[in-house]
């Protein structure tokens, strides 16, 4: 089965918007809209038991769950547009792989904890996007591509605007990157050489 599509201006625009979306998604998930960095100190946590607090990792906050819904749901919509001939399980595998890549990257770069809850929830959110695509296709058939493309383009542009507004704001929510707490609960700064 051939999934290639001719490179029309609309498909090129869609591909560019998807690339922007993926970069924005990675920036939000990995660095929380901060300047990309590699972590310091001993942070390399893996939370294996999903959806409950364990060890040093707490349960996911409701606002975080809602925000992640907004971040991963478009993945399913974009895949529905880019590869409409794929079965849902193939798209779900790509979404799960992208989420796994985010979790592994957080672990390797020491910039957050790798969390099985996130892997499961992000895949489910992408599946919701695939489901929404299927519902729109069932309801609007020939107009599906244009409807979903407009939603994706508007959503991606709004995401970029929101990121720009956040960057312009003096408020920052991420912990300082030059400080870490060691196992003995001592605070260390990079510039102190400890």
Explain what the structure shows:
It holds the Pfam family VanZ. Keywords: Membrane, Transmembrane, Transmembrane helix. This is VanZ-like domain-containing protein. It comes from Microlunatus phosphovorus (strain ATCC 700054 / DSM 10555 / JCM 9379 / NBRC 101784 / NCIMB 13414 / VKM Ac-1990 / NM-1). This protein is mostly helical and 194 residues long. The chain has one domain (9-192). 60% of the residues lie in helices and 5% in strands. The protein is built from 5 helices and 4 strands, in the order H-E-H-H-E-H-H-E-E. The chain has helices at residues 9-31, 62-82, 88-109, 116-140, 144-168, and strands at 46-47, 114-115, 179-181, 187-189. It has a two-stranded parallel ribbon with strand order 1-2. Helix 1 packs across helix 5 and helix 2 crosses helix 5 (144-168). The protein is globular, with a radius of gyration of 19 Å. The chain starts with 8 loop residues before the first helix and ends in a 5-residue tail after the last strand. The model has no long low-confidence stretch (mean pLDDT 84).
Structural class: mainly alpha
Mean pLDDT: 84
The number of distinct β-strands equals 4
- Count of domain modules: 1
Rg over alpha carbons: 19 Å
Widest sheet: strand order?
Answer: 1-2
Query: Major sheet, described briefly?
Result: 2 strands, parallel
Percent of residues in helices comes to 55-70%
Order of helices and strands: HEHHEHHEE
Which outline best applies? globular
Protein name: VanZ-like domain-containing protein
Transmembrane segments: 14-33, 69-89, 147-168
Keywords: Membrane, Transmembrane, Transmembrane helix
Domain VanZ-like: 18-136
């Amino acid at each position: 089965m051939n999934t290639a599509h001719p490179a029309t201006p609309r498909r090129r625009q869609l591909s560019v918007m998807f690339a922007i979306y993926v970069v924005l998604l990675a920036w939000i998930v990995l660095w929380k809209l901060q300047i990309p960095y590699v972590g310091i100190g001993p942070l390399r946590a893996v939370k294996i038991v999903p959806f409950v607090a364990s060890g040093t990792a707490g349960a996911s906050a409701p606002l975080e769950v809602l925000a992640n819904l907004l971040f991963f749901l478009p993945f399913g919509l974009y895949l529905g547009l880019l590869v409409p001939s794929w079965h849902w399980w193939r798209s779900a595998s790509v979404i799960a792989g992208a989420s796994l890549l985010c979790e592994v990257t957080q672990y390797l770069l020491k910039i957050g904890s790798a969390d099985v809850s996130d892997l499961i929830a992000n895949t489910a959110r992408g599946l919701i996007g695939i489901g929404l695509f299927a519902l729109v296709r069932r309801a609007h058939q020939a107009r599906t591509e244009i409807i979903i493309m407009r939603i994706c383009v508007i959503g991606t542009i709004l995401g970029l605007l929101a990121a720009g507004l956040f960057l312009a704001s003096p408020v920052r929510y991420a912990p300082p990157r030059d400080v870490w707490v060691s196992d003995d609960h001592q605070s260390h700064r990079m510039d102190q050489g400890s």
